[in-house]
Amino acid sequence: DVYYELCEQLRTYLIDQVKNFNPSKDIIDKYIKDLVRPDYYLSEREKLEYATFLNRYNDARKVTIVSFNYTDVIDKCLDIYNSERRLPTTGITYQLRIIEKIHGTLGTPYLLMGVNDEKQIDNPEFAKDEDVLDYLVKPRSNFEIGTRIDERFTTYTNEAHLIVTMGLSFGETDKVWWKTIGDRLKRDNSLIILLFVFEQNLPTDERRRQPIKRRVKRDFLTKWGINKENQFAFESRIYVCVGSGLFSPNVHIYQDDRKGL
Questions:
Q1: What's the whole-model pTM score?
Q2: How far apart are CA 167 and CA 164, in angstroms?
Q3: Tens of pLDDT, residues 158-168
């Protein structure tokens, strides 16, 4: 009962927040452009490397969005952008395949809240209680609910040439998901990963940001089970953007190119 009460309180709060979400067309334009062109926030050298990587794949870019958010804000933005949910081309065709919600949505009977596994439950009685585990262990909940989102996430990850994470901390309670990404990185040396990370009080000199970027890379590589001796071999396939202004309505970086939206 307490669990359901918490879920419903969260649902009520988020529904109220979504009702107040009424962005302007300019904000929507920037949001969608950020979604399909994250490379705008890379350095000039990184942009060239990114373009060289994408040129290996001449067909339409198929985009799968996996959201860890409960709301339908992404859906709402796409619907406002255009009713057919067509993504901007800017010389390249982007095809939106699907939007998946890992933790459920405000419109489903369930919201997933909890931990990654029973080892993260401090109460020893709860950690042994099958009924409690059905609710508190998120991968188990997904399995019991039977949506097969866990299987689809693995399929998306294994098919991807590029994985972009935006605003995700990948904490211990979502270990199953970032472990899936790490396993793919270790198996496929052609996979590229872009990590957008929020950091406060960043220095403006890019050279002073490099230690932060290295720390972010190595923290993720450690999470993915890659020991320090072998991390250097993977670092060149991970790009880190910190304090980029991604999805910020007050940061416009596209200049004249924004007309192509």
A1: 0.87
A2: 10
A3: 999 999 998 77
